[in-house]
């Protein structure tokens, strides 16, 4: 029976315990549960551990592989470090929701069948919505509702696909497929909605920045990367994903360049980074899938680190917007340094984790002779340095002096940031040690003088472009329209228009009917009312005259 | 005279900013000139050219900023746009 217990259940139990305990006991749960999960993850053997029969389906709650363990490992590390970052500042229900959310992510990693995958998928949707709501503001409440609607929609689409596959093939196994028919397309679309792929990318930048300073750290890690492992398991080598990924890469850069909210810049850059992974899954070779997995691993660390540094700034200053921030490096040196390490990592600067993981994806494009993909990814690497590598730290920590002199991070937040900063550098400096954990054997030399020089040129001249064009990048207190405009503005406007168009004519018709009814009533009243012609007392003389006339008429007719 | 004080950090003083720019230019030049001694392996020919990555990085970023600026004309709205 123990083989059926997913490591996710430990985190799920912890989520419950966080709600039930207090004080030091709760803190102990927050720290011990992710470590216990980590231990359990590495006990999962390759292959399906056991099956259980449910409604004629063979459910496989736990299936192990190097890939699944790798993703589950980073999710557990994230739960631990996120717990460290948040446990003194976040409310208990946010922490509880975050652990349930992490449990969903770990559960998806080990799901051996589509039904188990779907259950954990929905668990994530449920509790990530709670985390958005924990932002506590009216804006967070509204963003949470939009987030929930989109993710439930994504879940329904995924479910339709799964039902279709089960009905048509009779198998609920998780196995590689291609989007060739309605069922598989539905599954792909359902997963891609969670990956923030176009056209529904806007939910991410809409919801994440509305959460609390601690909530956005958790949100940045799980949903999109679970979509990446689902894509690796179900759609490796699906050609559509190359185009989708490249679009996401460029979309993230352009929108991040336009953005003023510090955490929204980072949210757009999640879409950008997940784009690299989706593109890699589309390429689909062992090198590419290694790249997608490695980049997801590294990405969770540096993206959480960036969200932590932004979270500390929001926590200390209460301000989100670049136009209100600036000059914070004076009093927040540690947060600034950790933010810069995260920024360098996301930009794949040599000696940071991004350099050693993103290079695998580029190499995969080279191996497959995908010239356009290679050059677009290289351009995107330059663009990442532009929008996240320099823009984020520059506008938040340097730029102008905003006059703000906040204290640096509280000790637990500082410890979490330092831990992730060290991991970013360790993966960057010792890539071979990290490559050993990837799903396929790696034969790749990350550091050659030529490669380092190429990337230094690329990135440093991108930096030059940033500062040369700084006047063009001046922040304005604006937002940018996205596809969410359709459901936030267009559809409500149409609905209001239809409501008016339908409701008012009805009113007019109603008024007309009432008028006609009243007119008929008054006519009847005029003839039959107390003063009406037919109700009057007629004089006797007029009656005699009428009788005489009728008699005369009768006599005339008789003689004619 | 120019003692760094709490409000006047050494990093924001004009002469230091000029100094940082000078160092930055030297580093930029060094990364390009280093290609004289270090061979950059071009996978598709053009990417092995002298200073290719430098020019490509600069031009791509310039293009992205311009595209963003252009799209911003159509896409940007006041940040209380959805509040009303």
Tell me about this structure:
The complex is a heterodimer of chains A (560) and B (84). Chain A is mainly α and 560 residues long. Chain A has three domains: 1-223, no CATH class; 236-482, no CATH class; 486-535. In chain A, 71% of the residues lie in helices and 2% in strands. Chain A has 21 helices and five strands. In chain A, strands 1-4 form a two-stranded antiparallel sheet. The longest helix of chain A has 45 residues, at 484-528. In chain A, 54% of the residues are buried. The model of chain A has no long low-confidence stretch (mean pLDDT 90). By secondary structure, chain B is mainly alpha-helical. Chain B is 52% helix and 4% strand. Strand 5 of chain A pairs antiparallel with strand 1 (76-78) of chain B, so a sheet runs across the interface.
């Amino acid at each position: 029976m123990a083989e059926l217990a997913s490591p996710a259940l430990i985190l799920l139990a912890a989520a419950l315990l966080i709600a039930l305990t207090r004080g030091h006991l709760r803190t102990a749960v927050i720290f011990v549960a992710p470590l216990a999960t980590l231990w359990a993850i590495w006990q999962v053997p390759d292959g399906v551990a056991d099956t259980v029969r449910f409604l004629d389906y063979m459910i496989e709650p736990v299936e192990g592989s190097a890939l699944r363990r790798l993703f589950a490992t980073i999710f557990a590390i994230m739960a631990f470090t996120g717990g460290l970052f948040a446990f003194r500042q976040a409310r208990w229900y946010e922490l509880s929701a975050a652990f349930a959310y992490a449990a969903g992510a770990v559960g998806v990693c080990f799901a051996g069948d589509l039904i188990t995958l779907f259950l954990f998928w929905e668990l994530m949707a449920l509790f990530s919505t709670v985390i958005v709501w924990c932002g506590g503001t009216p804006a967070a409440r509204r963003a949470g509702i939009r987030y929930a609607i989109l993710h439930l929609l994504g879940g329904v689409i995924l479910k339709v696909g799964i039902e279709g596959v089960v009905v048509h093939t009779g198998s609920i196994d998780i196995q590689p497929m291609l989007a060739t028919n309605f069922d598989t397309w539905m599954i792909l679309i359902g997963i891609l909605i969670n990956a923030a792929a176009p056209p529904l990318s806007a939910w991410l930048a809409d919801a994440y920045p509305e959460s609390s300073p601690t909530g956005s750290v958790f949100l940045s890690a799980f949903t999109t990367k679970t979509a990446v492992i689902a894509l690796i398991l179900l759609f490796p080598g699906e050609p559509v994903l190359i185009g989708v990924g490249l679009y996401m890469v460029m979309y993230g850069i352009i929108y991040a360049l336009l953005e003023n909210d510090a955490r929204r810049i980072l949210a757009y850059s999640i879409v950008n980074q997940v784009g690299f992974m989706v593109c890699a899954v589309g390429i689909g070779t062992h090198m590419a899938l290694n790249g997608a997995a490695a980049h997801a691993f590294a990405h969770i660390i540096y993206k959480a680190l960036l969200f932590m540094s932004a979270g500390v700034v929001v926590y200390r200053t209460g301000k989100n917007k670049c136009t209100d921030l600036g000059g914070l490096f004076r009093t927040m040196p540690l947060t600034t340094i950790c933010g810069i390490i995260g920024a360098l990592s996301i930009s794949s600067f040599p000696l940071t984790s991004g350099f050693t993981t993103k290079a695998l994806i580029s190499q995969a494009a080279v191996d497959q002779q995908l010239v356009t993909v290679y050059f677009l990814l290289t351009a995107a690497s330059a663009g990442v340095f532009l929008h996240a590598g320099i823009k984020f730290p520059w506008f938040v920590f340097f730029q102008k002096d905003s006059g703000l002199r906040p204290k640096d991070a509280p000790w637990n937040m500082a410890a979490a940031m330092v831990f992730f900063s060290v991991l970013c550098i360790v993966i960057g400096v010792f890539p071979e040690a990290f490559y050993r954990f990837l799903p396929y054997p790696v034969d790749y030399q990350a550091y050659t003088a030529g490669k380092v020089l190429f990337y230094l040129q690329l990135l440093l001249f991108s930096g030059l472009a940033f500062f040369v064009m700084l006047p063009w990048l001046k922040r304005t207190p604006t937002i940018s329209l996205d596809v969410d405009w359709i459901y936030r503005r267009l559809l409500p406007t149409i609905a209001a228009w239809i409501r008016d168009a339908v409701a008012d004519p009805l009113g007019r018709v109603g008024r007309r009917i009432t008028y006609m009814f009243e007119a008929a009533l008054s006519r009847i009243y005029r003839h039959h009312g107390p003063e009406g012609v037919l109700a009057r007392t007629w004089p006797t003389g007029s009656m005699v005259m009428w009788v005489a006339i009728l008699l005369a008429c009768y006599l005339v007719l008789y003689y004619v | 005279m120019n003692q760094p004080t709490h409000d006047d950090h050494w990093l924001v003083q004009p002469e230091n900013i000029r100094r940082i720019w000078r160092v930055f230019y030297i580093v930029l030049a060094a990364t390009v000139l280093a290609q004289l001694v270090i061979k950059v392996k071009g996978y598709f020919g053009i990417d092995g050219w002298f200073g290719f990555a430098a020019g490509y990085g600069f031009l791509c970023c310039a293009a992205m900023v311009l595209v963003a600026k252009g799209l911003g004309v159509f896409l940007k709205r006041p940040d209380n746009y959805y509040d009303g």
